[in-house]
Structure formats: C-alpha cells, structure tokens
Amino acid sequence: MPVDIHHITSDNILLMQALLTTFGEAFEDVETYTTKRPSENYLRRLLGDDTFIALAAVKGGAVVGGLVAYELRKFEQERSEIYIYDLAVASGHRREGIATALIEKLKAIAAERGAYVIFVQADTTIDDEPAIALYSKLGKREDVLHFDIAVDGGQDST
Fold first, then answer.
1. CATH number of the domain that 42 lies in?
2. Residue 156: inside a domain
3. pTM confidence score
4. What is the number of structural domains in the chain?
5. pLDDT one-digit tens code per residue, 34-85
6. β-bridge partners, 115
7. CA angle in degrees (0–180, nearest 5) for 128-105-96
8. Is residue 145 part of a domain?
9. d(CA 46, CA 59)
C-alpha cells in the first residue's frame, strides 16, 4: 500500500492531531504529546505560520509517520535553513522508506523557499542507530554540542 505525504495546513487540524498521537506512540512518550494538547485555535495559528512546516505520512487512511520543521531565516544573507524538530514513523511501518519520503518532501519545500540546507539533531547518547543511519545516508554528519538555557519564568517543558 502506498504512502502519501501531506503538507498539513491550518485547514486540517484533525490531521495535525493525528500526527501528535503518532509522535507520542512512536517516541513512547504519549503523555507529552497528548495530555496538554494545544487547542484548535493554537494549532490553526501555528499551521498558518509560514515558518512552521508539518508533514504527515498517510497510509491506508491512517497517519503512520510525520515530520515537523521550522524555517530559520538568516540575517547575514537572504536565505534560510530548515531545522527538523521531530521526525517519527510508527513502529509497524519502519524500514519502508517513509522517513526518507518525508525528508524528500521537505527538501522540495525547502527548495521552493530558497533554503540552502536542512539540519537535524540526533541524540547519539541513546541507542538510535536507525536514525543515525538514515541521516548519515542523506547528509553530512557534524558533531556538535547542544546546550539548553532555562528561561526564568518560562513555561515548564513537562
């Protein structure tokens, strides 16, 4: 059965909600993706923001994977970068080329927007060899450090 990649717009809140459920299950973190789910108005605004990109992989009418990315406009030149924030495929549908199809669709969107690169972080402190293999196949690996800086008075991330 073929997979269809959908660019989720503000007109399709139900597809975005299904993607949130898929992320929760695929990441084995259902609580984060479902217990404080954003309102429809919030999702509509987010999906209407031209710097936010959400893609859903649909197979047999069900969301079996997805990708969320942000366009970061650069200041030193008139160009942008695309940052993949989340990418997941349901466990029963892995190794079918779905993640690659999602990234290929994102590459087309990035090209339309004049972006010069897509980047993603992979947590190498955990055993996620399939993700590292996927990203290594599609791009050049760079080892970097990542720091989280707390925001005083900011919302709790849990």
1. 3.40.630.30
2. no
3. 0.82
4. 1
5. 899 999 999 999 999 999 999 999 999 999 999 999 999 999 998 899 999 9
6. 80
7. 50
8. no
9. 25
